[in-house]
Amino acid sequence: MAFKLKSLPLPYSLHSSTRQNPNFTLSNHRLPRRFSAPSLPLGISLSSTASASRFHRTALVTARAVRSDEIANEGEEDKDEELSRQGVKKELANKGIWSQMKDIVMFTGPATGLWICAPLMSLIDTAVIGQRSSIELAALGPATVVCDYMSYVFMFLSIATSNMVATALAKQDKEEVQHYISVLLFVGLSCGIAMLLFTRLFGAAIITAFIGPKNAHVVPAASSYVKIRGLASPALLVGWVAQSASLGMKDSWGPLKALAAASFINISGCIILCIYLGYGIVGAAWATMVSQVIAACMMIHTLNMKGYNALAFSIPSGKELLTIFGLAAPVFMTMMSKVAFYSLLIYFATSMGTHTMAAHQVMVQTYSMCTVWGEPLSQTAQSFMPELIYGVNRSLSKARLLLRSLVIIGVILGLLLGIVGTSVPWLFPCIFSPDRMVTQEMHKVLIPYFIALAVTPPTISLEGTLLAGRDLRFISLSMVGCFCVGSLVLWALSSRFGLLGCWFSLAIFQWARFSMALQRLLSPNSVLYSEDTDRYELLKLKTA
To answer: Where are the domains of the chain?
Structure first.
């Protein structure tokens, strides 16, 4: 089965549009605003009129009269539908922005846990290992780069799964949904096996090249961590596909329960293996690996409970592979630019000594834990903006007003996260490491840490709006540009100011993203001001 591209106003999000409810029918004109659906397409009444015209030229007078009555009735029905549509639009326009945002945030609330679980597990590993050894804490930085950041390369599987499943659900075609799931499960399993082999064969060499000869004593601990974590790579990517399929079906509670259970297992295993049994970084690796496998099994079970076979694998055709990779290419470029820049941050920090590496690992993990709290702003934009930009209730003024509210909330949230996130390593550094030299290095970077963290939530809201507006070309190109310039700034500042220069480079990188996204959205040609929607037309997958 091959795929064909066709336009459809669909948000790029892990949560598909609520119009893609499998229980949706064209008669549901009175759905709540979050689940509003377009009326019958205008083409139906036009084709009926065209058929009536041909019938007029050949039929009897009595038949013409009957047909005319039918056309009149159809015209009245179309008029009623138009009035109903206008009523819904008026209701949407009258509802306050804060009420809209509250509804959407409540709808996407359970998914917040999905963003928190992964950095929370990494932060727990950091805290537990830091209590035992500064060397192992330093080794955790490059080890997580190889494990976590390499897995982010395959984040396109999540994007492709949610979009393809949501598209099939919009057509109420369960067989097509099953086919998409089977194809993407096979792709995820294949990529996971490749990642497993890569970490087993080249993990130690990558760690050695990444750390350098000055910190060779860190290599054994980091290599052991990478090899153990790599065993879960196939289960990790298969679990991502199953999770995204559930999210495409508007189920965020199932994946949340799976990740909550995995987090509990990881915390318990890490404490028992690292602290009580004394396995250190190796114990943390085993705890994380087991928790990821269990999470994948629970994701698969959740999908099976919905009536789909999550263990059925289907080999994709060449066209299907091109479609999958083409769909997620802009998002792939964006993710790769971010991953590459954060990897460079850790790379430059590894050349500054064991204590500096350990301090940088603590600050990076706390930073990641704080930034995920801004993700609901991006989800809000991607869930609600498309209706205001492209939907039947199109209102660019409302979209601009919503963006302003999102940015205001992002600024407030950024300041709160900056204060809280800075206070923890400043006032309670012993949570992560009792080593005073590590604490001193952490305190050196608190100012750029706050500057970078404060601007992240509003940046996420702006980029979420660009995603909702289908301005994917700009997002990918701007992120690549930020990476190139940011890398040069990072090299220059880190060579002169050490770890402090690294974190000021991150602050500049984040503020550059914020400035470029804001300037794009405020320009006359942006999706919030331009009436020409064809330039930002989104692609829809359809079986040929």
So the answer is: 1-25+110-327, 336-544
Q: Which stretch of DSSP H or E encloses residue 3?
A: strand 3-7
Q: What is the pLDDT of residue 34?
A: 34
% residues pLDDT > 90 (the chain): 14
Residue whose entry in the numeric block shows the structure tokens 């990444």 = 210
Task: Give CA–CA dist 217/228, Å, rounded.
Answer: 19
Residues 34 and 24 sit within 8 Å (Cβ to Cβ): no
- 311: which DSSP letter? T
DSSP state of 372: G
Closest CA to 421 of 489, 355, 374: 374
DSSP tag of 317: P
Neighbours of 79 (CB within 10 A): 10
Q: In terms of DSSP H, where are the helices of 156-232?
A: 156-170, 174-211, 219-230
Dump pLDDT digits (tens) for 80-89.
444 443 443 3
Does pTM top 0.90 for this prediction? no
Which stretch of DSSP H or E encloses residue 539? strand 539-543
SS (H, E, C) 480-513: HHHHHHHHHHHHHHHHHHCHHHHHHHHHHHHHHH
Asked whether 269 and 290 are in contact (CB, 8 A), the reply is yes
Which CA distances in Å does 292 have to 42, 170, 366? 49, 31, 21
Greatest Cα pair distance in the chain: 99
